[in-house]
Amino acid sequence: MKRGNLGWLLVGSLLSSSAWADMKLNLTEGVTQVSKDVYDLHMLALWICIIIGVVVFGAMFWSMFFHRKSKGYKAADFHESTTVEILWTAIPIVILIAMAVPATSTLIDMENNDDSDVTIQVTGSQWKWHYKYFDQDIEYYSVLSTPREQYENQNGKSADKGEHYLLEVDKPLVIPVNKKVRFLITSDDVIHAWWVPAFAVKQDANPGFINEAWTKVDKPGIYRGQCAELCGKDHGFMPIVVEVKSEADYAKWVDEQHQMAANAAQAEKDSLNASVPMDELMALGETTYIAYCAACHQPSGVGLPPAFPALKGSAIATTGSAADHINIVFNGRAGTGMQGYGKQLSLKEIAAVVTYERNAWGNNTGDAVQASDVKAATGGASTAAPVAEVQAAVEEVVEAPAEDLTKEYSMAEMMVMGEEVYNKACVACHQPTGKGLPPAFPALDGSIITTGDVAKHLDMVINGSAKNPAMAAFSAQLTKTEIAAVVTFERNAWGNKTGDLIQAADVAAASAK
Amino acid sequence: MTTDVLNDQDSHESEHHDDHKMTGIKRWLYTTNHKDIGTLYLWFSFIMFLIGGALAMVIRAELFQPGLQIVEPDFFNQLTTMHGLIMVFGAIMPAFVGFANWMIPMMIGAPDMALPRMNNWSFWILPFAFAILLSSFFLEGGAPNFGWTFYAPLSTTYSNGSTAFFVFAIHIMGASSIMGAINIVVTIMNMRAPGMTYMKMPLFVWTFFITAYLLIAVMPILAGVVTMLLTDTYFGTSFFDAAGGGDPVLFQHIFWFFGHPEVYIMILPAFGIVSTIIPAFSRKPLFGYSSMVYATSSIALLSFIVWAHHMFTTGMPLFGELFFMYCTMLIAVPTGVKVFNWVATMWRGSLTFETPMMFSIAFVILFTIGGFSGLMLALTPVDFQYHDTYFVVAHFHYVLVTGSLFSIFAGAYYWLPKWTGHMYNETLGKWHFWCSLISVNLLFFPMHFLGLAGMPRRIPDYALQFADFNKWVSIGGFAFGLSQLIFLVVVIKCIRGGEKAPAKPWDGAEGLEWTVASPAPYHTFSTPPKID
Questions:
Q1: Which are the catalytic amino acids of B?
Q2: ipTM of the assembly?
Q3: Closest-CA residue to B481 (of B414, B405, B425)
Q4: A-to-B residue pairs, Cβ atoms closer than 8 angstroms
Q5: pTM for this model (two decimals)
């Protein structure tokens, strides 16, 4: 009975041609040279397997049909044959070599990350992607845009699912056609994997390390993929969408992004002086909360303890000070799943969401938090808009208590301070051993930069590298004393025994050039 | 291999001796008898198989259609994690240890395992390990939700609080496995009947011998990596945390250095079982016995130098990718030799198709399909597309379900007459076989297509283009799950009664186990048989 039903179902499904029409059975050929090579390799391997399968299973079925006891077949008595055994060891080796040759050349091609035209840093975090264009000063988060009511159907309700259900985002990654785009892939929390099947690019995003991948797309269009490494609760809800534009459209898009960033920065500035009424804060807070916080803390604020604590009735969102609350939202909490939203949300949005959390679900504190409170509590501007980030960084340097550039430190002091700075700012790429992760992140131990001309070394740390966009300029992030310390450290740590002692004044002089 | 055994004397002997069996629960708690312990292992693994299967049913129910209908995503992750852990450590591995306990002493003409008290201990800590693991479902944050591969930092900094329970359970399972493996090695080395040289041992014994060495080699590595996980989570170390100078990829290297040999731990005994059954029902000796031994050994050795093929997307250097690709492809050679040998054993035999033979033939074909997808996965450039998709899920289920599990069924049907003294019901056995065969392919074959079309594994909800296949897969899953209840019925019926089994119910079977009565007396081979 069961067997009959199943068989009927199988046959029925196989025969219904409509089922085949919109169903994909095979690997995509993709839209890059690499993805086509990969597809060819896949088909080669598949056909080899099919042919071997037909031969081997054919022999088995021949035996099963003709060498049956029920047909009176008498068993032969052979149980070895050196010739046959050598043959069926040697032939597979030849077949394997035939597969290994094209596999090797495709792989060498895939791993050649040189000579890229555009470099984009891709950062995974629970559960969204962050894209940062190195040469363009553009960065933004890309989040699933499928509405919750489409996928949360536990109560039996179900909204109609859209065409790109779970494969759509608010802001896709945009890249130009026919340009070699290099991705520097990393993560803020757990391991994710950035995968776009049409490009045959899948690369793990490891926290604290940077992986490289590249693509060169033949054809403008929209290509979709998903996170491919289990990264926690919403692993299934962090898709990747890449929009490939013609060169002209891409240039236009870049300009638009700059314009939008400038507008956002202006809005951010304005918000500092504005006093937003409570109901408006609550409304904005609720939308922001649903978009950014509800996945973990739940729409009802009860969270999913212990990993995602409740906000409803919690000390942080009720009796605790608003400033502490703001700080947690802005900077996150190290060692937990709570990420910092300072980079993702504007000051106004953070103010609104904090207000919402302090007044929703019976947390009736009555606190109305304004953008200026957020700035006061965190001591910096939101970095949601890239232009604002740069301005904020500049402001921060200007506003910081004036650094005493004349103070001289001893070698020992500088080495201790330098190591601290190195571990904070440099170690992720150049590694604790100074061996780096070549070729993207060159070694400092024994390198020409750290043992050669001091001026060049200083210039590299202050202004970044013109050739390698991964080497950022640190002038805005570190004080002059810190730069002096870290350069001293790099020139004297590991095997670099130059004996050079650099002071803040030297850094000031180098920066002025 | 011819054996000449004075079995009459042996079976008479056992009738005259007192069995010294305790009664009731004490018999099972205190037993040091290899047959009792084998039975305990087999029942334990079957219960775990049903629990792990029940979790899989919930997974398939959730994936029956797009949208989240039954479970929350976090609970879904707990289900996939626990399904994997229970099936690997609770169902497949203990089932094979059960076979080893029952059959190895009888096949080498030994009275029992070499270390009977340790044997008792190695079984009885297992239920506690799984009680701890399963109890984590009742923790505040729930059971482990980081995948059975428990990659850091998802299982450390970002864990839901189940890490300590998980680690402790794994430690106990590991201790159990190591003790079981030491026992197998010591028994085979020291207790073979006079005249049974290594190259006269049944292939079944050889595969368990090699597997036991693999276990002794890699279980301590698993223990090490879970301990590092524990200290990273609770004691402030940074083995796998870049912020403290560690590396999350280091975790994967250590885990897979255990994990890849572990894969062979779960398949080499299966090779041994089908290499016993196919000659029996082909009425023809196993083709290429010595090449089988060498192929098994080379697979075991190669398993230590291919681990990073699970990690091609972690950002390995080109040289590493090439090395691991070539080594992995090389495994196809000895594996091919085995498959060809099985086919050659059947070739010009005199075949009959009892249930054990049916499961063995299905094993050869379906395991080979799993091997084909394994070969495709070995090709690094294409692995970038297959990795962490349903193609991989299809691959390892073909190898572990239609491979390991089918061999376990084959072995169970083959030796049930020896274990219980009754023939199993052949009609029900065939029903079990055909229902399993059809449903398992409906369950796992379309997963290849899903993976190629781009569906990642371990997701609770999926895009609409994957909907049709997922529906079929779920139907196949439910059918496969229900089919296993037939097996339960067959086994219970067989224990309770049925046609009386002769000492050697299969006319083509070879080996010392068929020289003793059915059911096998409580003590066998108190005087070792002599082998020419």
A1: 83, 112, 148, 176-177, 260, 262, 264, 275, 309-310, 335, 338, 457
A2: 0.92
A3: B405
A4: 329
A5: 0.82
